[in-house]
Amino acid sequence: SHGDEYSSASSVKNPTIKFTKLFINGEFVDSVSGKTFETIDPRTGEVIARIAEGDKEDIDFAVKAARHAFDHGPWPRLSGSERGRIMMKFADLLEEHAEELAALDTIDAGKLFSVGKAVDIPHAISCLRYYAGAADKVHGKVLKMSRELHGYTLLEPIGVVGHIIPWNFPTVLLFVKVSPALAAGCTMVVKPAEQTPLSALYYAHLAKLAGIPDGVLNVVTGFGPTAGAAVSSHMDIDAVSFTGSPEVGRKVMQAAAESNLKVVSLELGGKSPLIIFDDADLDMAAELAILGILFNKGEACVASSRVYVQEGIYDELVKKLVEKAKAWVVGDPFDPKVQQGPQVDRKQFERILSYIEHGKREGATLLTGGKPMAQNGYYIEPTIFADVKEEMLIAKDEIFGPVMALAKLKTIEEAIKKANSTRYGLAAGIVTKDLNVANTVSRSVRAGTIWINCYFAFDIDCPFGGYKMSGFGRDYGLEALHKYLQVKSVVTPLYNTPW
Ligand code: ADP
């Protein structure tokens, strides 16, 4: 029964905070300045712990360690299978500590404990194992030159990598970046989000236990404009991989351009459309639309924040959506009955509420929700707006909260046009039984991932990334491995040909 599960989880609900310092060159250390910052529990607004506040000087130390580990250490020189073996060990350690790790993300980010344990942590483990298995299968090719030359390519690790991580998926997004970089033989500096530093420091500890050599994986906690900016502008970081807001993505790219032209990959926001056609299975469509916007409290870059419904089923579907939103359980993310925890922090909470006010003022029809919940903490009611026009702010901006924007449509052409009427292009969903409609719309919508009769259908083997202002570069799949590899061409004459 739910009650038993909840009470047996109560020891887990107050995890001891074991790691609060920066992890540089295999050791936990204070920041150079000695400064710390508070990490807050969004269920209450109370301080969980004080965390070392890294800044430029700490990033410098971390990069020095990573550079030394890259130039002189064993990691890039190990065989792929040896790196893979150590990564497998790292994955096993995550498995051993799954509950504790899920609990850290729950108190730090307000994420559902049950989902963390069943989805996020296992996903991170699979990610490590997937790239561990790929580590000994990285090779170049023999070239078919057009002259009397023998040529081949070598794939080499790109060097020292900076990973800048957001707060909405502190575990998954860390491993989505760290795993392929480790497999490639890179060394790295991870800058977790200031809202959610706890699990990243724990992962640093587990990496050391697994046998990842000192200096290979460094974690510097701290703020974006200081520690984050020091990563993107560092002269000795070879590549930076960023997931976060478009505003910050632009700054990261600018800093990279103005410093050493490091390789950049950006996974930014979205305003992803979910298009539901007249022939859709209504229950499935309602389920997907609700999950698409409410999963992880709407704090998902792929959230289906624009829902377009064809006119024949509009009224019936909207009724189902409102029923489901009203029945959606918001509350303590440790409670297994709860479907939505608090937003990550006060800033996001207020930002979402201000978008809701905008929606009301702009003339969209508020069908349900629209307010903070009565209890303490950063909880917001599942909110649905109908009659949302393209020019409204709530149709254009990424809200990053539990706020759905609904609109009615007539034709397939209109569906395609509306789906594409955004500066973003991260994901799109299509619900229909008609294969021709599904195929036509899939090919016409400019987005990196198209989900047909499903949503949030992530898989480690499935490349993920943006079109347009949702960024560039791909996480997941073997594509992601190539973000962390350089291609070197080696050429030599055949026979006695000169050049
Ligand atoms: P959000 O706005 O959703 O909080 P951000 O894009 O601001 O997301 O944050 C994502 C990550 O980028 C965090 O780790 C944050 O510290 C970092 N960050 C924020 N500002 C900068 C910056 N100017 N340069 C580099 N990183 C930054």
UniProtKB/TrEMBL annotation:
Pfam families in the record: Aldedh (PF00171)
Intracellular or extracellular location(s): Mitochondrion matrix
Reaction equation(s) it catalyzes: octanal + NADP(+) + H2O = octanoate + NADPH + 2 H(+); an aldehyde + NAD(+) + H2O = a carboxylate + NADH + 2 H(+)
EC nos: 1.2.1.3
Domain annotation Aldehyde dehydrogenase: ranges: 28-490
The UniProt record lists the keyword Glycosyltransferase: no
Principal EC category: oxidoreductase
GO cellular component: mitochondrial matrix
Major localization listed first in the record, in broad terms: mitochondrion
Sequence intervals crossing the membrane: none
Key words of the record: NAD, Oxidoreductase
InterPro entries in alphabetical order: Ald_DH/histidinol_DH, Ald_DH_C, Ald_DH_CS_CYS, Ald_DH_CS_GLU, Ald_DH_N, Aldehyde_DH_dom
GO MF annotation list: aldehyde dehydrogenase (NAD+) activity
Known partners and oligomeric status: Homotetramer.
Stored PANTHER family: ALDEHYDE DEHYDROGENASE-RELATED
Family: Belongs to the aldehyde dehydrogenase family.
Protein name: Aldehyde dehydrogenase 1
Organism: Juglans regia (English walnut)
Gene: LOC108997881
